[in-house]
Amino acid sequence: xxxxxxxxxxLPADGRFGCGPSLIRRAQSDxxxxxxxxxxxxxxxxxxxxxxxxxxxxxxxxxxxLPDGYEVALGNGGSTFFWDAATFGLIRDxxxxxxxxxxxxxxxxxxxxxxxxxxxxxxxxxxxELALPQASPDxxxxxxxxxETSTGVLAPVRRVTEDALMLVDATxxxxxxxxxxxxxxxxxxxxxxxxxxxxGLWFAVLxxxxxxxxxxxxxxxxxxxxxxxxxxxxxxxxxxxNTPAIATxxxxxxxxxxxxxxxxLRFAAARTAASAEVLYSWAExxxxxxxxVQQIEARSPVVGTIEIDGAIDxxxxxxxxxxxxxxxxxxxxxxxxxxxxVGMFPSVDPGDVAALTKCVDYVVEHLA
Length: 368
What we know:
The strands form three sheets. A seven-stranded mixed β-sheet has the order 1-9-8-7-4-2-3, with helices on both faces. A three-stranded antiparallel β-sheet has the order 10-11-12. The protein is built from ten helices and twelve strands. It is α/β, with parallel strands linked by helices. It is globular.
């Protein structure tokens, strides 16, 4: 299959369909290059970088239409760091976690291992199926992923109760899926998915209730690098505790400009929905492909997982496509299924998703 040449007229204009890091638009790279001798390589405690952080916080406030009292915090590390920080700074005693894949399970594990917390409740479903948080009198924080990146399961975002915090992992959905932010208390994400940036930072939209919980638990011992009080204090100064990846900030700021100028979250959600319609319609009509997520309303518009018939070796298909410049559609590594997984974040043109389906058809046709 390494010698198979896909006709150029079938290839997408941009063959990057990764689920993180995701496609970075040329305009973002151009801005990064333009700042290569000014902002890049300068102190993150000085006005140019602090202005950049402030601009990102303001842009996120506009993108999500944040109500009064909500604020944007950021810190070093990705969503994994935020899970650990949340075990110290947002869970008072007991949390409930929804496990529908790799990432929901990881946060549950972090809470279970914390010696100062009660064992968490876990609501689970097999990979590819949807599970929802359930009201429980002993729980003070509910945690679930709006979009399970490993499987492409999309979950609704709505409050379970009024007397607990809602901690929503939006790593692969923030900026590409509609959300009512008032239904959350910590809507957190890393910037390497819908925001077309690199890893190394976490962002969290915090409600007044979340801020109050952080203050309530501020006497709890915590490593400073995982301290939400420290992150919040620094965020209000438009900085991070330690040196951030400035290139990541530059890429994210430009992406936010593009999203807001194009119509904001409504534009982004419509664009990802258009890509998803192309991908799932193709799979439903194919003799060898089918959507992995059977429940239509639970199918993600930003991460599409497609099951491939056992007669076709999906690994050979993805390898052949990679040799033709169509990359990163391999399935999630730990899921171990005969699949392709397609990132359909706002930067991805729906027309390129259509081209991808034609390329897959071409390769499968020539496997014989």
